[in-house]
Design a protein that fits this description.
The chain is of the alpha/beta class. The protein contains six helices and 17 strands. Strands 1, 4, 7, 8, 10, 13, 14, 15 and 17 form a nine-stranded mixed sheet that branches. Strands 2-3 form a two-stranded antiparallel ribbon. Strands 5-6 form a two-stranded antiparallel sheet. A hairpin with a 4-residue loop joins strand 5 and strand 6.
C-alpha cells in the first residue's frame, strides 16, 4: 500500500538558528524523524513512499541520495574500508517518490498535488512526518477496509501536560486535574484514505478540518482511538524526550529493532468511532 508523507512544514518551534532543514529532518539518535516514520510503515510491509516536499526539500533529497546504511546496520569492514558487507539493510527495497508540493501549501493542497501517484489504489496511507507511534497498523487497515468510510484517523488522548481547573460560583477553585482526564481526543494522523477524499479537497483549504468537515454529515470519517504510545515532535522539549528514550534503549515506536524496542505488548485500539454529524465541538467520539 502506498504511503503519502507530508514533509514540507517550517517547524518554526524546532529550528536552531539559521537551520534550513524541515522539521521531519530533526534527528532522533542517528536518523531523522522522517526515517523513523518510514521505518514504522516499512515494518508492516508498506515500502512505497510519496514524499510531499516543501520547505527544506533539498535537505530531504540530499539525505536519501547519500544514504549511509552503516549508521543503523551491523557490518563487516575489510580491505581498509574498501569492502563493506552489511548484515542487514534499511531502504534497499523501498520505492521513494520525491514531489515538490510548494512552500506554503496546506496539507490538503499537498495531497491534491500527488493525486496522480495514488490513482488506481483502492486505498492508501498518509501521515505527518513528525509523529511516532506503536499503533497496530494492520488492525487499523482491516477495520477501515471493512467500513464505508472515506477517511480514518488515529485518535489519541490530548498530549498536553497542563492542568485544567474547575471554578465554583464564588470564584474558588474546586478541582485541579490533568487535561488527559477530560477524555478528549486529538487528531494523531496515521490516516487511511480512499481516493474519494480527493472529491472533498479544495485549493486554499486544508484536509483537517475543511475536507474532513464535509465527510461528517455523510458519516464517512472514522476515528480509531488509541491509548498506547504516540508522540508528536513539535518542540525542542518533545525532541529531547524522544532523544532520551532513544538513548535509554526504550523506544516503543521502533518495532523493527529488538535492541531498542521496549518489548511491551501493543495496546489494542479502544474501538472505532464516528464523529458526530453535528456542528458540536465536543471532541469525544461516538461508537
Amino acid at each position: 500500500m502506498k504511503v503519502v508523507l507530508f514533509c514540507g512544514g517550517l517547524g518554526m518551534r524546532m529550528r536552531e538558528g539559521a537551520a534550513s532543514a524541515p522539521k521531519p529532518m530533526a534527528m532522533i539518535g542517528d536518523r531523522p524523524l522522517l526515517w523513523h516514520v518510514m521505518r514504522y510503515y516499512a515494518h508492516f510491509g508498506h515500502k512505497d513512499f510519496i514524499l510531499c516536499l516543501g520547505y527544506g526539500a533539498a535537505a530531504v533529497k540530499d539525505y536519501f541520495l547519500h544514504y549511509d546504511e552503516t549508521l543503523s546496520n551491523d557490518f563487516t569492514l575489510t580491505m581498509g574500508g574498501r569492502d563493506v558487507r552489511l548484515f542487514a539493510t534499511d531502504i534497499t527495497d523501498w520505492n521513494i517518490t520525491f514531489i515538490d508540493t510548494g512552500l506554503g501549501a496546506t496539507i490538503g493542497e499537498r495531497l491534491m498535488r500527488v493525486r496522480r501517484h495514488v490513482e488506481g489504489e483502492e486505498m492508501f496511507l498518509a501521515n505527518y512526518a513528525d509523529t511516532l507511534t506503536d499503533a497496530p497498523l494492520p488492525a487499523m487497515i482491516d477495520r477501515f477496509r471493512a467500513s464505508t468510510a472515506t477517511a480514518s484517523l488515529l485518535a489519541v488522548p490530548v498530549q498536553s501536560t497542563h492542568h485544567v481547573i474547575d471554578i465554583d460560583e464564588s470564584d474558588q477553585v474546586s478541582r485541579v486535574r490533568p487535561i488527559r482526564e477530560l477524555m478528549q481526543w486529538e487528531n494523531g494522523g496515521y490516516f487511511v484514505l480512499r481516493p474519494e477524499i480527493f472529491e472533498e479537497l479544495r485549493e486554499g483549504e486544508d484536509m483537517v478540518p475543511h475536507a474532513f468537515d464535509r465527510l461528517l454529515p455523510q458519516r464517512r470519517l472514522m476515528a480509531q482511538r488509541y491509548t498506547g504510545f504516540w508522540r508528536a515532535a513539535d518542540t525542542f522539549k518533545d525532541r529531547a524526550e524522544l532523544e532520551q528514550l532513544y538513548h535509554s534503549a526504550s523506544c516503543p515506536w521502533m518495532l523493527w529493532d529488538a535492541n531498542r524496542h521496549s518489548g511491551a505488548p501493543i495496546p489494542a485500539p479502544l474501538g472505532v468511532g464516528i464523529h458526530p454529524p453535528t456542528g458540536t465541538d465536543v471532541p469525544a467520539l461516538i461508537h
